[in-house]
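It would be a great kindness if you could assist me with a short task in structural biology. The matter concerns a single protein, recorded as an amino acid sequence and a row of backbone structure tokens. Could you please explain, in whatever detail you think fit, how the structure tokens follow from the sequence? Thank you for your consideration; the sequence and its tokens are set out here:
___
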Amino acid sequence: GYKTAQSIFGAAYLAAGDYVSIEGKNYEVIGVLSQMGTVSSGISPDDAVYIPYSTAKKYIFGNKAEPKISAVAADVNEVQTVMENIEAVLTQNYPNAQFTVTDAGSEMEAAQQSANTLQTLLIAVASIVFIVGGIGIMNVLFVTVRERTGEIGLLKALGCKKGVILCEFLLEAGMIALFGGIAGVGLGYLLIPAVEMTGTRAEPVALAGILSLVFAVVTGTLFGFYPALKASRLTPIEALGSDN
């Protein structure tokens, strides 16, 4: 493939006539495909290496070889016709062989539908977590405001402005959410080895962790705004009277 030739030889045009080593055996490069990009099956021919079937069976796969042929139709409207032609040619040339001809486009469509369903489910779960977590932060802040009513009244009596008290409680809400986010991200990273033990590849992404923390702080600030606003609107008389 084009990209494979580039990565090995530095430039695709340098590959033809040279040799590559696969499992200790040298193979001559007889040509390089033009750049094709990713096909409908999700596989890029640019990243592949092609060798004769007989060579692969003799030196690499042995008798366990199960050849797979990928074909790309020149026109997407002719996919069904191409499939029928391929099946006819294979049946004519290999009458005793067992094979199946499948449309990668249908498989991709089914996979896309499954991915869309999973994405919808994840969005629903994330929304529930967002609401539940936000309500939890709001309740914690309401309790904090109630416990510190006397302090708020004293600050108001000393001339503290509403904006200062509002920002103080918003900062507290953001810090609560931030610590919760750090705990969640840390737990996620610690669970990676356990996930990989199931055979599922899990690769940590720093950007995802950072975005999670930002989202946590934004969530805490949004849900903490109303309790903070109530605290800032308390009058000194109300606050000190309530404390007594």
Remarks:
- The longest helix spans residues 104-147.
- Residues 120 and 126 are 10 Å apart (CA to CA).
- The mean pLDDT is 81.
- The longest strand covers residues 19-22.
